[in-house]
Amino acid sequence: MIGWTIFALAGAGLVGLGLYGVIMRENALHRILAFNILGGGIFLVFGFAARRGAGAGFTADPVPQALVITGVVVAFSATALATAIVVRLTAAQAEERDDAPHAKDDG
Amino acid sequence: MNVAFDAILCVLVVLAAIRVVATTDLRAAVSSFLAYGMLLALVWVRLESVDIALTEVAVGSGLTTIVILRAISRMPLAPSSSTGSSPTRSAQVAVGVMCAMVTLGLSGVLLTLPDPAPSIAPYVAQNMPATALGNPIAGVLMVFRAMDTVLETVVVLLALIGVWAMVPQHRLAEVPGPLAPGRAPEPVVFLARALVPFGLLFGAYQVWAGADVPGGKFQGAAVLASMGLLLMMAGVITAPAATNVRLRALLLVGPILFLAVGVAGWSLAGAFLGYPAGLEKPVIIAVEIASTISIALALVMLVLGPPAGSASS
Fold this sequence. Notes:
The complex is a heterodimer of chains A (107) and B (313). Helix content of chain A is 82%, strand content 0%. Chain A contains 4 helices and no strands. In chain A, helix 1 (2-24) packs antiparallel against helix 2. Chain B has 313 residues and is an all-alpha fold. The termini of chain B are far apart. The chains are: A mainly alpha (107), B mainly alpha (313). At the A-B interface, helix 1, helix 2 and helix 3 of A face helix 1, helix 2, helix 3, helix 4 and helix 5 of B.
């Protein structure tokens, strides 16, 4: 029991750390990384709930575990989309900054 | 002994996370994030969740790191230092205190959860025989919460459409940017040729065995996707363009088969996503295989990112 509680506290710590990074880091890609740490903390809280719900011959409640697997894949999809948007945004800002010489390049 | 191991593991995970958040060097943050993901996977093993550990190590840690690294390599080195000023010391302290309070509050809630923990495990155990599956997590993903899994395959597809939408329509036929600049070094080519057959076998095994032991379509798809990426990195195969018809058909086969089985469930089993009695296992395996193909390709295309540049080599 004590062993699992350590993981729950680590999850809570990751949530706080990720939140700090999302708010304080200036680079958007850095914020995406922090967002993933925030998510990892929430998944750990789920894992703790699953481990506490062990019973009926299972070492952990399989329903929260399955939800975390779904969550990890969805978090990756969101990360890939957010990263693509950041890259596009940065390119657009760069184009805007020096559009004078290269204005006619992209038709 | 185990408590000591768990405590050290938790400290290492939190230290890696602190390093990711505290450093201002983005590349250092990405390396620490990779370490954080690997350690987190160990935590999942300690929490008796090998299925999640496999997903975390392949998708949450591995593929996410590649996506961020590729983005860094495409962005200018000095990222918009002209906009705004860096946060003041007092702002750092204020936000730090606020986040610490979130952590403390969450810890308090977690430490005072009701003692006979609520659990749906008995219901799962009771109904597992009807699914003809041995892995309870596969049972939840494919039967009890199949709706979530259908929507998840659709979400992955939607994210890919979003990524492709980052370029104008007329550039969609271009191939994604190369994974590595220039010619691949010999060791990478050798690794691709030597490792990929084993990787493909292992990915297929994970999908097949996932019905009864830890593993499954997401873990298998992630391994298959990494093998595809390794082949592209070595220049053995080239990335397909977003307009490739075969690619699009294979991306759609998983969600469409899953939805078709779901709709057929109304007439065959009396409920959306109900499986015909007696045929549960073959239908589930067919859906798993089709979903694996679609998810693996979607993961590869998500990592490759939007079409970039006309250079196809």
